[in-house]
Amino acid sequence: MCGIVGYIGHREAYPIVIKGLKRLEYRGYDSAGIMLFDKEGDLKISKTKGKVADLEEKSKEIISAATIGMGHTRWATHGVPNDVNSHPHLSNSGNLAIIHNGIIENYEPLKKELIKRGYTFTSDTDTEVLVNLIEDVKKKDNLKLGKAVQVALNQVVGAYAICVFDREKPDEIVVARLGSPLAIGVGKDEFFIASDASPFIEYTSNAIYLEDEEMAVVRLHKPLKIRKIKDDSLVDPYIQELKMNLEQIEKGGYEHFMLKEIYEQPNVIKDTYRGRLHANEGIIQMAGVEDNLEKFLNADRILIVACGTSWHAGLVAEYVFEEFTRIPVEVEYASEFRYRNPIISSKDVVVAISQSGETADTLAAIKLAKEKGAFVFGVCNVVGSSISRETHAGAYTHAGPEIGVASTKAFTTQITVLTMIALRLSKAKGTLSNSDYFRYLQELEIIPEKVQEALMTNEHAKEIAEKFKNSTNCLYLGRGYNFPVALEGALKLKEISYIHAEGYPAAEMKHGPIALIDEQMPVIVIAPKQGHYDKVVSNIQEIKSRSGKIIAIVTKGDTQVKELSDHIIEIPETSDALSPLITTIPLQLLSYHIAVLRGCNVDQPRNLAKSVTVE
Ligand code: F6R
Questions:
Q1: What is the dihedral of CA 591, 596, 598, 599, to 10 degrees?
Q2: Which residues of 384-480 form beta strands (DSSP E)?
Q3: Which residue among 307, 337, 338, 411 has the greatest number of ligand 1 atoms within 8 angstroms of its CB, and so is best to mutate?
Q4: SS3 for 584?
Q5: Most buried by CB count within 10 Å: which residue of 58, 308, 523, 582?
Q6: 312 alpha carbon to ligand 1 midpoint, in Å?
Q7: In what order do the strands lie in the sheet with 500-505?
Q8: Which of 524, 570, 181, 494 is nearest to 309 (CA)?
Q9: Which residues neighbour 570 within 8 Å (Cβ) at sequence distance 6 or greater?
Q10: In angstroms, rounded to a whole number, what is the distance separating the alpha carbons of residues 37 and 150?
Q11: Comparing 3-248 with 456-610, is the CATH topology the same?
Q12: Which CATH class is domain 3-248?
């Protein structure tokens, strides 16, 4: 959470930093700030509560031809979102400026110590403590900035990606990372610093991703030196060539990133299986799985750890893995798993799912599983992310950048990867008949066409959204493979429209939630023809007899559920196990339209951030 951008070079820094902040705004957007240092030696800061657009408005008076700048878009942890708590923060002397993504957990004792030494604080943030700690260390021992940052960071507990600027040494920016991502774009006589590569993609495709506990002094006209924060040892910089292009991170004519990403699903699912799925030959090939096949086949169980939507993809995978491979599966919230002294052994395979690859709880769960001897396999979208590096092996989802805070294409591509893994293991174990195995491969290959067809429900979803946009509560029901889809549908609605929504296994209704049903309650039932259709029909009848308003997701041509429902959305038929890839599409569209009709900020819902790098 929080996005940071820095620039040092020969171009005007202001437009680079502002544009970069807009691209990083998905990471946090409750306040923003910018610092510019011009040739006359003026250090100017502008910061404000609100979005980057508000900052742009406010910072007009500080715009200059400065070629050094840093900017920050915030997701508050310590201190409410307001102008004062926004970054950059200055040290007491006014010489050092810092932007920070992360949390300094021991900021209170450090602050007390600094107060005793005469320091004063204007904000409630942990970041202002850090910049003054650096200043104190620097002054006490007359250190250069880089060394002072290093000494200070060795006193800090927590997580950070930081950029520090010293007006007395204006040809450099010192950067460091622990637990929060930080990329350095390397251009000709210029450097870009950012939480991810999107702010500098049009300037350079050469990037260095700092590893945890590394720092660098980014200095003009000097080769970049990366050091370990703890022992000062030098690290060889690994320059990665970026494959991302500008088009991928722009809206491409759609009103919102979320809608664009919903519509990208047919293509990105193809990208996910391209080169891995060869349906006619009956082959599934994924390097990370092939290289570790024995580990999967000998596993006593597969333990899936993830958060939010990725956790829902994990729940779908539980059904798929157990059905296809007969390997026992457990799915855990990473945030619970990490703190409950779980029983794990070297016979367990842990699968960590994460779009961003930066989720702090998932990362911590991985570290714990590794400590206990498990083999850890990652399913990530962001290439080079912390989770993809921390896991023993993995498979990328190849969904392309997901900018909308509500996850859509990440979910369906995660399910695609996990289904392919399950199919590969079923082949090795012989747990599926040959004909079923071939049938699933062929069905998976044509899923993108069916997703495309499901997207044609858009207009109808919009009409239904119009009818239910003022609801205060909503219930989502599904069974089997579509129970996790019900959870995901409810999450999508609540996070972007702020309507309270719950997902339930349909049969659980009678154990409590049915008491909620009255004529005001929209109930979205996922009822495709395959699976537990008859049982779901009975559940729908129970709702109908209590006057609930039924919106059903049904297979094209369905008549039985249609008769019972107030509204239906028809989707193409596929097998039960693959149906989540289709049933989820109208639910995404429904949430999207309800949120838009309610005037909500779909891409940046309140209180949320795309990449949750704090626990
Ligand atoms: C919901 C959503 C979140 C994320 C969760 C995990 O739409 O986006 O629930 O799924 O924060 O994030 P990743 O997958 O990046 O680990």
A1: 150
A2: 393-396, 473-478
A3: 307
A4: helix
A5: 523
A6: 10
A7: 500-505, 473-478, 522-527, 549-555, 567-571
A8: 494
A9: 457, 554, 555, 556, 557, 558
A10: 23
A11: no
A12: alpha beta
Catalytic choice (2, 163, 380, 474): 2
CB burial string 74-95: b at 16+ within 10 A, e below: bbbbbbebbeebbbbbbbbeeb
Q: Which CATH class is domain 251-451?
A: alpha beta
CA distance 132 to 110: 10
* DSSP three-state, residue 407: coil
Q: Where are the domains of the chain?
A: 3-248, 251-451, 456-610
Residues 6+ apart with CB under 8 A from 459: none
Calpha distance 147→153 (Å, rounded): 10
310: Cβ below 6 Å to ligand 1? yes
Total-model pTM: 0.84
Amino acid identity of residue 350, one-letter, is V
Q: Is the CB of 397 under 6 A from ligand 1?
A: no
Cβ–ligand 1 distance for 30 under 6 Å, the answer no
Query: Is 610 noted as a catalytic residue in this protein?
Result: yes
Sign of the CA dihedral with 48 first, then 52, 53, and 59 last: positive
Rounded distance between C-alpha atoms, residue 161 and residue 171, angstroms: 20
For the cut 90, the answer to whether the pLDDT of residue 460 exceeds it is: yes
Ligand 1 within 6 A of CB of 356: yes
Asked if pLDDT for residue 390 goes beyond 80, the answer is yes
The rounded distance, in Å, linking the Cα atoms of 495 and 587 is 13
Query: Are the CB atoms for 157 and 177 separated by under 8 Å?
Result: no
Burial category of 213 from C-beta neighbours within 10 Å (exposed 0-12, middle 13-18, buried 19 and up): middle
Q: What is the pLDDT of residues 192-248, one digit of tens each?
A: 999 999 999 999 999 999 999 999 999 999 989 999 999 999 999 899 998 877 777
What average pLDDT does range 5-12 have in this prediction? 97
Domain 456-610 superfamily per CATH? Glucose-6-phosphate isomerase like protein; domain 1 (3.40.50.10490)
